[in-house]
Write a structure and sequence with these properties.
This protein has about 100 residues and is mostly helical. Helices cover about 50% and strands about 0% of the residues.
């Protein structure tokens, strides 16, 4: 699996360099999630009662990007305690 930003245009020199290493592949476009969809994802994955402020911070941090949201939730879960999400974990943009 590989990922590329939208600014990396098919047919560009960068693609020409990477395609031989990828072999046969298919491009799947991931559209940004809507806030409610992101909230549902977080609730399903964590199985916790996540505060709305945390949902908002996760969405802002990921800008709805499914892969960034996934990684943000993994980070959040790795830093939680037995009672759930620690309230002092900062999820502001640019912080981990």
């Amino acid at each position: 699996m590989a990922s590329a930003r939208e600014t990396l245009l098919p047919g560009s020199e960068a693609w020409a360099k990477i395609l031989p290493r990828l072999g046969a592949c298919e491009r799947i476009e991931l559209l940004p999630l809507k806030p409610k969809d992101a909230e549902t994802y977080v609730a399903e994955v964590t199985r916790l009662d996540v505060p709305m402020t945390t949902h908002s911070a996760l969405y802002a941090r990921s800008a709805g990007n499914p892969r960034l949201l996934q990684e943000s939730v993994r980070l959040l879960m790795s830093r939680r305690d037995n009672d759930g999400i620690r309230p002092h974990i900062e999820l502001r943009r640019g912080r981990g």
